[in-house]
Design goal:
Length: about 250
Amino acid sequence: MVKKTLPQPFFFEKGPRAVLLMHAYNGSPNDVRMMGRALEKENYTVYAPLFKGHGTLNPEDVLTATLSDWIQDAKEALDFLTEKGYQQVAVFGLSLGGLIATHIMTTYPVLAGGTFNSPTINYEGFNLRSAFLQYVRYVKQVAGQTNEVVAIEMVQIEEKLDQQLAAISELVSSMQPAYREITQPIFIAQSGQDNLINPQVAVKFKEELVKAKIDFKWYENSTHVITVGVDKRELEKDVIYFLSDLNWNGE
């Protein structure tokens, strides 16, 4: 039997410009690996951390971590790049990773940031809860658990999930006033066919960024995990162009 390799953080050390990439709620660094390789080819150094509770064979492990854990993971990733000598860093993330990237932008002097289908505004049409529960149920059934056992276990899982999602919602509410003070350039990517987050979230987020230079891109045919979807190459090119236009080290 071939042993399945679990997702790991990756660090592609290349040029003097550093990019931090963060993955989605129920994902791993594999979400952004192709993006990382595309940036590496353009001479960027790229680091993608693994959030606590992620990268395992059991999706429930996500519920053992807290939002504070993930913010700390992001801070440690930023510190890692700083200790490596990268004084200017651009931070990006997919979905939850983009929300945390935005949090980093509001609290640390990073060069720029970006979000890919991220829940940066509390808005109706947020389907993560149902999608996550459906996936957990599926994994349990494939593992051979009976419907009765699954139903019992799902009660506690739903409770933990609701607590976690409430914490995310609270973070968004607390961050929103700071959006109007962001001055760094920011890249916003949104899929037109996003199946987890209402695409209008990105539009409303853009409207809140009254002081930032914004590069807003709409990918009509893509679904939520845009970094591996039909528009992934276009997204990569757009991110590379955004990065190339930044004022790195006063250039």
